[in-house]
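Open question from group meeting: does this chain pack into something compact, or does most of it stay loose? Before anyone orders reagents, we agreed to write out a predicted structure and look at it together. Recording both the input and the output here so the notebook holds the full record.
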Amino acid sequence: MATTEKAGSLTQKSVSATFKDGKLSGTKLPVADGAQANFAIVLAKEGKGLSLVVVDLDGAGVERHALKAMDPTRPQAKLRFNDAPATRPETGQLRLDRNLVVISVLSGGREKGPSFSYSPSRDGFLRSCG
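Structure tokens returned:
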């Protein structure tokens, strides 16, 4: 998930990455696991609003640069997009993609296993994690 571009609060005005005619341009940093991920869900300006778009990080128009991180278990990256092909998925597809990202994070990158089975039974901040 690539949303931030600089230090400070994330607001509509702080987003400068753009999505137009199926192309994504701009920079996102820091992006957790951005150097290892295959795809990213990116927050970008589209028209007068914001959209979440999916981009293949191994595709054309994408540059990745590793950043130093305080937590070595969650490497950070700077992602630069230069007219990179991207898509704005249908609502159901985006929901599925989001769930796959969350499941992957909770399970350490494995879709099934002890972490995946355990996390739905956990509570955090007085709410169920599952």
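Observations to bring back to the group:
Confidence is low (pLDDT under 50) at residues 94-119.
The first strand starts at residue 18 and ends at 20.
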